[in-house]
Design a protein that fits this description.
The structure holds two protein chains of two kinds. Chain A is α+β, with helices and mostly antiparallel strands. Chain A is built from four helices and six strands; from the N terminus they run βββαβααββα. Chain A has one domain. Chain A has a two-stranded antiparallel ribbon. A two-stranded antiparallel sheet of chain A has the order 3-4. Chain B has two domains: about 160 residues, no CATH class; about 100 residues, no CATH class. The two termini of chain B are about 60 Å apart.
Chain lengths: ~120, ~290
């Protein structure tokens, strides 16, 4: 899950772009419960400066920013590439070691982030 | 009110016969019917190696005189309604019924490959006093007050340097020693280390911060609080009529299809390619 978050209004208009991660192995009732703390903060992405919609130069820069965002995601999720196909042993909460194949199943983002990721 | 087929202008007074006509005569159009799931494919066979599942469509009755046909659907249901409820879960095997009425698990999925080293010690540590590693309930409550009150580190250090704290009973005398105790509260906190990455937007190099995604997975899977909730194998759930139920993520088809593969009982490169195609928006994460 990722979304830009507005932090401050009058002290620099600070923003953060957190990316959260959780597991599909947890039932949704448990996973989505705020008190279960089953969602971890995975990354804080860089936020590009605001660009005007009319300028062609800014449109070019907007595409560069989208590529930059994709590079950031690629760097974050690159460690999943080999375990997703070959598997990796992971210690589990029941005291057993499971052979896991972690894959990125769902990415939840708003429309504009989806546009930037395509 | 009679139903009129928009494709061949036939009229039907019974919805069942109309659906049957659509399903058989116009099957090539892939019309999705509300009752299609009754006829949906179900796993019927599995090879001896337990690594290959073949999915077969049930043989459908021939489309003949429509209205005069008897409803074979009820007959087909009756054939599977007598499954003995010996257990809540059925392990898929060679004799699996086409329309089961109880959950199905893939044989061998979710089995462990070993034991976690030191797990017994970790369990025994849970029997320690609830305030551990803090020396007393007072020191634990004081630390909770610091953290929940979002007291700055400098003010915590001031608290102890001014002599307000009783260091002999608290077990910590500065923010540094308090942080060490807080880290000891979570034995798996080492997984959540932050790293700094950099991306170049053409004008400047932008820093950003991230945790290792695989370590986050390890951290979550290691949490004893979720021990009774974790689901490892894919699962197909059905109601009493044999209709498929889609509830949690592990009951969906994609998980089953991804885990059960012809050449690899867990996953193959081919399935990953399929996944990349289905989730086009994440294709960048897998590019090599």
């Amino acid at each position: 899950m990722s979304d830009q978050t507005h932090l401050t209004n009058f002290s620099g208009d600070k923003k953060a772009w957190p990316v959260y991660i959780t597991l599909g192995n947890l039932p949704s009732g448990r996973r989505n419960s705020p008190t279960s703390r089953a969602v971890l903060l995975l990354a804080l992405l860089p936020i590009p400066p605001k660009l005007s919609k009319s300028s062609k130069a800014d449109q070019h820069q907007r595409q560069i920013n989208a590529d930059t965002l994709q590079d950031g995601f690629a760097l974050i999720f690159a460690p999943l590439q080999d375990p997703a196909s070959d598997g990796v042993p992971i210690d589990c909460a029941d005291g057993k070691v499971q052979r896991c194949f972690p894959i990125l199943a769902v990415l939840i983002a708003d429309h504009m982030e989806n546009v930037a990721l395509h | 009110m009679p139903n009129k087929c928009p494709l061949c202008q036939r009229k039907y007074s019974r919805s069942g016969a109309y659906e049957k006509h659509l399903r058989n005569t116009h099957a090539h159009l892939d019309i999705v019917l509300a009752s299609t799931i009754k006829y949906a494919s179900s796993p019927t066979t599995i090879d001896n190696q337990g690594s290959n599942i073949l999915l077969h469509e049930r043989h459908l009755p021939l489309d003949s005189d429509y209205e005069s046909d008897t409803d074979t659907t009820e007959h087909a249901y009756g054939a599977f309604a007598d499954i003995s409820p010996e257990s809540d879960t059925e392990i898929l095997n060679e004799t699996a019924s086409p329309l089961p009425s109880k959950p199905m698990l893939y044989k061998g999925a979710g089995e462990s490959i070993g034991d976690v080293k030191g797990f017994e010690q970790e369990q025994s540590n849970l029997c320690q006093p609830p305030c551990s590693p803090f020396g007393s309930a007072h020191s634990f409550k004081l630390a909770s007050w610091f953290i929940e009150g979002k007291v700055p580190k400098s003010r915590i250090n001031e608290y102890f340097s001014s002599g307000l704290g009783n260091t002999s009973s608290d077990g910590y005398s500065s923010m540094h020693t308090l942080e060490n105790l807080l880290q000891a509260l979570d034995p798996h906190s080492a997984y959540l280390q932050w790293n700094e990455g950099q991306v170049d937007d053409g004008k400047q190099t932008l820093p950003f911060f991230y945790c290792k995604v695989l370590d986050c997975v390890r951290y979550l899977l290691r949490q004893i609080a979720y021990r009774d909730d974790f689901v490892y194998p894919p699962r197909r759930e059905y109601d009493t009529n044999g209709q498929r139920i889609y509830a949690a993520m592990h009951t969906a088809d994609w998980w089953w299809d991804l885990q059960v593969q012809p050449h690899n009982p867990f996953l193959s490169k081919q399935s990953l390619t399929e996944t990349r195609r289905n989730f086009r928006h994440v294709r960048h994460f897998f590019r090599s």
